[in-house]
Specification:
- The complex is a heterodimer of chains A (314) and B (54).
- Chain A is mainly alpha-helical and 314 residues long.
- Helix content of chain A is 78%, strand content 0%.
- Chain A is flat, with a radius of gyration of 21 Å.
- Chain B has one domain (3-52).
- Helices cover 61% and strands 11% of the residues of chain B.
- Chain B contains 1 helix and 2 strands.
- Chain B has one helix at 15-47; strands at 3-5, 11-13.
- The chains are: A mainly alpha (314), B mainly alpha (54).
- The interface between A and B is medium-sized, with 18 and 16 residues.
């Protein structure tokens, strides 16, 4: 009798309770989380006034956990399409190491907890922004847009662009035009970054039924869009310097990297269909990650370590 | 594999399952302890140096 009931439970939740700690960590999308933490840190450092290192650490921890919870909720909802794509088939849920129910039970307390702890320990403006970011990523991007429109990553990109605004709010308790400029840079960076990925993963996206731009509108249209957004991104990245909250080191780095971004986007645009497009879009995708990291690193080094004054003197 | 049959034909949880469950329990304990430490340190920081003046 007892054997029968145990076996029934086993069959209905094949992977329940079998995940390793590393599988749960993988649910948090650690690579995305690291970029989120980094851009939030820059927002915090660039913000006027100081923030106590312990409060800054607590803020970054909450932002990291909130971002991780969003990633886990995304994997919970998208387990069906993750299983169809080679890039994501090895994730803990489609691979059968963690059940969807476990992922949801893991993610929800993290999402709610990160917001409540950020509000309690730091301030409620930052907490409200973090809550908005999580809700936007999960409900607007994952549930609503991703399977419905090729503009999914354009609008959904707002969630990924918000961390520096949250970081700024953690330091100051407000949202300013300066932090919104940092938001705008990541927002405009997101489409060419993901469309470059979609260009060399078109088969995957088609199989999963996700209406990414290359799937719906074709390669040529996607290339035009990538070039247009890149042409917008390069001058936009100079705005922090024009507005005076970034110095000459940042201007130099953003200028050179912006020209390189345009070059790589141009190579994608000029590439002929097939393997040439795949290799050009791969290069743009890889460079785009480096681009975002380096321009924010320039801001961090300049503002965080006081290099601005040294370079301004030169 | 979560369940296996022993030599008496009874179903029981595998050694691997128990090991993974134990690792998860340790991870949860470590996170809870870290959270307690975080709240303690942030409270001290928020109170400021005046907390030492009596």
């Amino acid at each position: 009798m007892s054997n029968v009931s145990v076996n029934t439970t086993h069959e209905s939740t094949a992977s329940a309770g079998f995940g390793e700690v590393a599988d749960y960590f993988a649910l948090l999308k650690p690579r995305v989380m690291s970029l989120v933490v980094f851009t939030a840190l820059v927002g915090m450092v660039v913000a006027p006034g100081g923030i106590h290192p312990v409060i800054a650490f607590a803020s970054l921890l909450c932002i990291a956990v909130g971002a991780g919870a969003s990633g886990a909720l995304n994997m919970w909802y998208e387990a069906d399409i993750d299983a169809k794509m080679s890039r994501t088939a090895g994730r803990p849920i489609p691979a059968g190491r963690i059940s969807r129910g476990e992922a949801l039970a893991f993610a929800m307390p993290l999402a709610v907890g990160s917001v409540l702890i950020l509000g309690t320990l730091v301030n409620w403006v930052a907490a409200a922004l973090l809550a908005f970011t999580i809700l936007f990523y999960v409900l607007v991007y994952t549930v609503w847009l991703k399977r419905r429109t090729p503009q999914n990553i354009v609008i959904g990109g707002a969630a990924g662009a918000l961390p520096p605004v949250v970081g700024w709010a953690a330091a100051t308790g407000t949202v300013s035009i300066d932090s919104l400029v940092l938001f705008a840079i990541i927002f405009i960076w997101t489409p060419p970054h993901f469309w470059a990925l979609a260009l060399f993963r078109t088969t995957d996206y088609t199989r999963a039924g996700i209406p990414m731009l290359p799937v719906v509108a074709g390669e040529a249209t996607t290339k035009k869009h990538i070039l247009a957004y890149s042409a917008l991104l390069a001058p936009l990245a100079m705005v922090p310097w024009m507005m005076g909250f970034a110095g000459p080191l940042y201007a130099l780095v953003a200028g050179i990297l912006g020209a390189m971004f345009l070059y790589f986007a141009g190579r994608v645009f000029m590439s002929s269909a097939g393997s040439q497009t795949i290799s050009a879009s791969r290069r743009l995708f890889t460079f785009s990650i480096l681009y975002l990291f380096l321009i924010f690193a320039a801001l961090l080094v300049e503002q965080g370590f006081g290099l601005e004054l040294t370079l301004a003197w030169m | 594999m979560i369940l296996a049959e022993n030599e008496n034909g009874e179903t029981e949880v595998t050694e691997q399952f128990v090991r993974r469950r134990r690792a998860r329990s340790y991870a949860i304990a470590a996170i809870l302890l870290a959270l307690v430490a975080l709240f303690y340190v942030v409270t001290i920081v928020k109170l400021g140096p005046e907390v030492l003046i009596r």
